Amino acid sequence: MGGISKMGDRYLRHLLVVGATAVIRYTRRKATIVSTWAFARP
Question: Is the pLDDT assigned to residue 1 strictly greater than 60?
Fold first, then answer.
């Protein structure tokens, strides 16, 4: 996939942000295995 920098593919960065936002919104509504992963501290 390569690097996603500011000089990289803007559309691909946009898709990653939209996908991450959707996961966070979904996990806040439902307590699932994904929510425990998404909000876990490293």
Answer: no
**Which residues 6+ apart lie within 8 Å of 39 measured at CB?**
27
Mapped onto helix, strand or coil, the DSSP state of residue 11 is helix
b/e sequence 4-39, b meaning 16+ C-beta within 10 Å: eeeeeeeeeeeeeeeeeeeeeeebeeeeeeebeeee
Alpha-carbon distance values, 11 to 14, 21, 24, 40 (Å): 5, 15, 20, 28
Number of H helices, E strands in the chain: 2, 0
